[in-house]
Amino acid sequence: MASTSSRMVASVVVFLLLLAASARRAPPLLNFIRAEMGTTRVAEARHRHCFSQSHKFVGACLSESNCENVCKTEGFPSGECKWHGIVSKCHCKRIC
């Protein structure tokens, strides 16, 4: 009898932990509903970003600002350094 009640308590605790963890990250629809109800939270648009390795950047990418400037000369709005094994390379970024 004691083991059944302890299992029940453990199940309730796990359920409450899962509920608390999921409440921290609201789904986009819930954000939209909150925005429609007049709260201060605004529904944010989520964009996917596409990356392309820079053709003009030479050497290891150690400076995000250098990478971004080179990517702008290639027609991209921004760029960032990404690691490939032991080498960091400049990747240009745009919204897909």
UniProtKB/TrEMBL annotation:
Domain Knottins-like stretches: 49-96
Alphabetized SUPFAM superfamilies for the sequence: Scorpion toxin-like
CDD domains, A to Z: Knot1
Single Gene Ontology BP annotation: defense response
SMART domains: Knot1 (SM00505)
Short name of any one Pfam family annotated for the protein: Gamma-thionin
Annotated PROSITE patterns: GAMMA_THIONIN
InterPro entries the UniProt entry points to: Defensin_plant, Knottins, Scorpion_toxin-like_sf
Signal peptide feature range: 1-25
Keywords: Disulfide bond, Signal
The protein's name: Knottins-like domain-containing protein
Classification lineage: Eukaryota, Viridiplantae, Streptophyta, Embryophyta, Tracheophyta
